[in-house]
């Protein structure tokens, strides 16, 4: 049936690449991806802020219904990030304290809800990563339909099953499976360059001459 099916996940980011990305800021990764990809500013950390990284297990469900989210938590493997596209609807919460505890007990990498959660105060105290678009006390329905391991889109950012999903206080980003190695190398170089810049700032030797040069090239008057 179209729209009501559990698909197999053919591939996923392995533990080696997950660990490589774990200490990279999302902003650095975003920069080397041409700043063209983002999960949307609405998706915010609802937990204590611990960064998140892991392969995506995707869920597409009807707004307000979490039947397929429950099944996804059963199917997910340790380290997986369950990414739920619920259309951004905030009318009904799709997960709360109990489902979050269950996911943490199974050692998942985190949960992304393009929709609402509840039990926000409890979730906020804990390190298990939960990113969502909002909060409401109204609970979900469990009637379906929905699909697991299909392509989903969060604010225009497409996520394929098995892609790498990373997130921190700046938001969520998907690194496509076929580009993970390249993106890691470039983002790592970017991160090291910024660490050197911080040292230059601390030592009072940061060269900012590029600012005036850029303004002149753009035709700014008054320099």
Automatic annotation (TrEMBL):
Substrate binds at residues 96-99, 118. Keywords: Lyase, Magnesium, Metal-binding, Methyltransferase, Transferase. GO terms for biological process: methylation. Coiled coil: none annotated. Signal peptide: none annotated. Its cofactor is Mg(2+); a divalent metal cation. Mg(2+) binds at residue 119. The keyword Transferase applies. One of its GO terms (molecular function) is methyltransferase activity. The keyword DNA repair does not apply. Pfam families: RraA-like. CDD domains: RraA_family. This is Putative 4-hydroxy-4-methyl-2-oxoglutarate aldolase.
